Amino acid sequence: MSDYVNFNENYSDKSGFPFLEISSREYELQKYFEIRIEDYIRNILVNDVLCAALENKGVRIYKSELPEMQDNIQKHFNNTEYEKLAHYEFIAEYGNKTVMYRYTDIDPNDVDNILLDLADEITILNWSIPGHLPKALENENYKTDKNINIICLKDFFKDNFDVKYYNEYYEKYVGFLTSTILDFQDFIGVKSSFKLTPTIMGTFRFQAEQNFIEHIEEIEKFFKSDKKIKSMGFPDDNDISYGYQIIDEKNKDDFSSIEQSSKDLLIKIGILKSFKDNKIYRYFIGESDFSKSFLTSEYLYNEYKESNCFDYTAIVSGYLKSIEQLLYHIAMFSVDKGFKIKYNGKRYDNGERPTYHNINNVRKVCFSSEYILFADTSMGSLIHFFDDNPSLFCIDKQYIKTIIDCLNCYRIECRNNSFHLDNLDNLSRVYFIRWNTLFLYIVLLSCCKLGENETETLNSFKVIKNDQFERLYYLISQGITSTFDFYFIDENGNLDNGQRVIFLPSESSYPSYNDVGLITSASLTFENINTKQKILVMKKIMPDEIWWIDEKGNKFLIE
Q: What pTM did the predictor assign?
């Protein structure tokens, strides 16, 4: 608290251009606490606790001390800075040996100078995931005659505490550390949220695409488990839900069959496999309005899904709006084909009404280019439009009712609990609404008649037809790989033998993006591993085929 107050009392924009706001107050606050939190964790939550536990076991402890600081000003250090000055955190005298503990790696050549007569060996207590020490710490240099031992935190508990209960102690301690740090982070709001700029959108588009792929794979796993359970003869009430999932109990009476029939829809007619194989999920990371609504909600969901003080209404409204917009885009493929839609009540500038027809006590206008301004394109009206015209679907009639019921249930559960006086702070409800949104995307794009041909569909949905350059840069920028195989078409129209290349960041330019995350300008430079020849890649100068190589040597085509 004193640090927090001190920061606010002394904060001022120390840049040379204050009004240009080079960095925000929130960013400076996070920087201010970045070293402090590591310093406090090291001294109070780790060193004091581990030393007290060892002393309780009869181990004699000597803590490190830094040389006196000038001006009596308290200094804060991260682990690397501290151990560069103090060399170790504490020394434990076990009787048969004396061990010097530290948390960061060390040059083996410095070991003798650091040990001197203080200890017999140095143990690096590494804080990586147990059993997953970084490769740098598994280097052969450490397996010399130098007195260096590397263990993870869990091994420290195993070596020093009751063998029977060490795992329980370890779990409790890690839980204590984690909860304490989370409290601290909540107090100062330490988590940074990226502003959804064109540059960030350039990256997030592919993260959202991967989220959709993982959703499909999750459904496939559920389906396989469900199939296995049924083959073993278990009752139906043990079925696994992976279709549309009804949220409110009261809707289970009105839409009693859709949870099972929606599962049949996904699996029996094979739309899930087709959706994945044909990469239909790329339709929603394009330049359409439904794509923008969906990506905005996905971004907010990813950023705030762990916050318990956030009103999630904005996220739900974005999902709902994206489905409404998608329905409208699909409906537009049937304009000027003789269909009628509910009249929205608008008039011409002269005050006259358009020609409308009273059908089953509902006023409807022709769904045509001439009358499109008079069409009611709200979600409820669009659902009725599809329900009244089964020819808009390309599936059996028995499944059309399932889709219509799912849409109506979705509309009710999104709107009735999200757009009235109460805040929506139930994250589990948002989770199910998101699940149902993804389900509806899969179903609508697979079961409705779209354009007369693929070109018409892609153009209407503003699908990005070629983002190979963006995908190449995404892999590089995320540190996933910098090694690729480039293939070019020779004069005979055949692919050449290919070139194994690596990316050269120092000779490449940082890209500029448009407002949907597409690169407008950039040049990437690669070097042939064998010939050292430089290869310049731009949006209009691309290899004819690109494969990226993972760390195991596996090859994946960038399409």
A: 0.71
